[in-house]
Known about the structure:
This protein has 295 residues and is α+β, with helices and mostly antiparallel strands.
Amino acid sequence: MNHYFAPLPLNHTRMSLQLNDVLEDSLLPELPELKVIAEKLSTLLKGETIIQASVNNPLPIHGTTVDEFKETLQGKIIDGFEADGKFLLIKFRDDFEIIINPMLTGRFSVRGAGGRPSASDIFRLRFKTNSLWYSDRKKMGRVYLVSGHDYTDVAEFTNRGPSALSPDLTLKEFSRLLQRRRGEIKNILRNQRFVKGIGNAYADEILLYAGILPFRKRSTLTPEEIERLFHSMRSILTKFMDVLRERTLPEITLENRDFLMIHGKKDGVCPLCGGRVSEITANRFKTNFCQTCQK
Ligand SMILES: [Zn+2]
């Protein structure tokens, strides 16, 4: 069965979030979440002037002092928000940017102009009528203030591959970049040096849709399988972005990924064949796959 032509089932049912059921590695935002968060924040805040920047917890802020951070940002005008792989960029109308690697629990919210910070809040940008808050419960994320597009101090930002959704990433280029990589195909897909934006959860979804087992060695993939993998990557990321666009910013921030087909669904039902979902844990990352659909 050629899964590339199979319809993509999307579960639009809102299930209540049960924290105990959510796998930690499923919480990491990947390109679809960050792209939609960036779109929504741009709609809300583009053109706004920062009246005051405040820092509640300096720990995740790297490469600049708290005073520099606050003073530099005051008066800056938001030009927009952009997702860059698994990073979120806040761009200003000069050459300054805030680069954020949210990791597991970095979250964005837009609240009223006032309000007191909570223990998980890192910084706040206050505008005339509202504020952007960046929070990080586990404080694993990293925040950088950068000027002149100098990203040398931003950890894991340079030397990455093209975006998984870049129009310049053609099938031909994807195949060429893939030929340079060794090892299991899921590990390659998750490697930001190959393409940027795919993490543990979406890699499982892409491989199910492509009909390829996650543990297959890259060297064993046929040209037809590589083509299926490429189109599956594009379909999955694009269609899940469409689902996320229908949700509000707080709903996306909850990371309630009830639309995923297979990742985090151990012993659940594969939506493509009705078979049982398998799970293997390696290096604290869970991998889910279907033994019927994936070869
Ligand atoms: Zn299946």
